[in-house]
Design brief:
This protein has 106 residues and is of the alpha+beta class. The chain is built from two helices and six strands. Strand 3 and strand 4 form a beta hairpin. The radius of gyration is 17 Å and the shape is flat.
Length: 106
């Protein structure tokens, strides 16, 4: 609060937005990789979230493109078996499968 009065309005606003984003535990971003705008937290059920930047609809539950009236796509068992075989893990932040090439293996 002490520093905010010395910041330009746009920078202060961006700082507050980023603070909200980083405090959100299970974040949802626009499914379009060219946009990836922060949309809010994960929803408890299938919900369409509209991106304020590009107007795309993202499912707030599975984080993929919105799919009204349809259940979220189930994980592909073949991909999960391959992941297990190769030691790939899910990122705790975005839940995507990742391969750790450097770093802590715990």
């Amino acid at each position: 609060a002490l520093v905010r009065v010395h910041l330009p309005i746009q920078l202060a606003s961006l700082f507050l937005e980023k603070g909200k984003e980083y405090r959100t535990k299970d974040r949802v971003y626009c499914y379009r990789t060219t946009c990836s705008a922060f949309l809010g937290g994960k929803t408890a059920s299938v919900t369409s979230l509209r991106c304020s930047r590009c107007a795309a609809l993202t499912c707030g539950f599975c984080k993929a493109a919105s799919h009204p009236g349809q259940p979220c796509a189930q994980s592909d068992e073949g991909v999960l078996a391959l992941a297990e075989e190769n030691g790939w893990k899910r990122c705790p932040g975005c839940n995507h499968l990742v391969e750790l090439s450097i770093g802590c293996y715990t």
